[in-house]
Structures are given as C-alpha cells and as structure tokens.
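USER: Note each token:
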Amino acid sequence: MIRSLNTAATGMKAQQTNMDVSTNNIANVSTNGFKKSRAEFEDLMYQTQIEPGAVTGLNSINPTGVQVGLGAKTAAVTKDFEQGSTKVTNGAFDMEIQGAGFFPLQQPNGQIAYTRDGAFKKGPDGRLQDRNGNVLQPEITIPPNATGVEIGANGQVSVLVENNLQPQAVGQIQLVGFVNPAGLKALGGNLFVPTNASGVPQQANPGQAGLGGLAQGQLETSNVNIVDEMVGMITTQRAYEMNSKAIQASDAMLQAINNLR
C-alpha cells in the first residue's frame, strides 16, 4: 500500500480546515469586535526505517537516518485579539474599548459572558444591554427622564435630567481582563466564556490594571484584513490541489503495479 494516499488525504483535510477558518473570518468582516482566527498545523508521527545516529559500521554512524512522515493535522485554531479599526457612530450607548479588556454580560441563564462588542441599547427597564438582551454588569440603569448621557474614559456614567444642569452619576462601567484571551471559548453572538486555558477573569475600572479606556460614540470593528484572507485562501486552494494531485499520482502508480505481467 502506498502511504502517500493517506498522507495526502491528511493534507487535504488540514487545508479544508484552513479554508473553513478563512471563510469564517471573511464572513465576519463587518461584525463588531470580531477577532480573526488562524489555523495552526503540526506533522503526524513518522515511520522510522533507520534511526538517526544508528551504527552502520566500525566507528561510523548514520548521520540522518530514514524517517518517512505520515501527514499533517490541525493542532490549534487561535484567536488574534489585535485591536480592530474604529467606527464612529455617535451613539450615546456605543462604546469602544481602546486596549485590552471585555465587557461582562449576564445571560438569561445567569451565566456571565464577555464581549468586545460595545453596541449597547437601553432596555425596557432602563438597563444597558446588548442586542440579545444580555445585561451589562454591573448594571447601569438610565433614568427615563434623562436628556443626555456621558460615559467617561474611566467608565463613569453620568446623565442629564430635566431642569438640572449638573450631571448625575448613575453607575460605573467595569471591564474584565484575562491572562490568556486566546484561551477563551467562543459561544457565538460575539460572546466568550472563560476556560482553564484563559485564566480567571480580573475585573477593574477602565484604564486600570492594564485594561483599556472607553470611548463613547464609537465601536471597534472586526480586525479581519480582507486582502490577507484572500491571499490565504488562494494559498490554501493551491495546497489542496497539490495534495489531490499527489493522490492521483499515487493512484496511477498503483494502477501501473496492477498492470504488471
């Protein structure tokens, strides 16, 4: 049996995963706070016919040995948390984290999730929440008679109410940081939850403990570079085609063997 058949098949499977990752990046090029992913690969085990350094004679050894690789596999799909571009919206409840950190949100099941998407809305009870109804933590409630909202870079939220020229503080936004953000588990809906790989959440005010500050009236867009993704897709397609050619060549070799008389 020619090993190259299975070896090339593993290469095609790896490149298929690479294409899936690139396609997801491109699909989310307009998603607020989206972080692009990168597939990483490693080689599989080797079939050793001659050990490197094996004794070949009196006072002589084999300098390289004979080892034949058996393919590749996907080792990891890593999130890149590089800062995305800024989109100015002038929305009163739109916030961009300028630096590290996540907004903590309470889901309907009570679980706390984290997001970089700062597009918040005022809910029916006045609390700030995302588009899916997940409530910002700690809770910030905007009075119904508020005529203006100001969110400082340090996360302090103040409002102007009717017949009062002095801003009134209504809450303090806090951010959460992780030792290894790449270890977070993505849930979809722009949400992440911590894992053993990410470390425990460390909460603090914006601008403190290594966390970024807030900018009101603007949002962080996706950090996907569409040109890089297109070039990567072309490279992936060519690698996939070469692996398929290797299977065709191996099949032709097997056919030649079967035709021997």
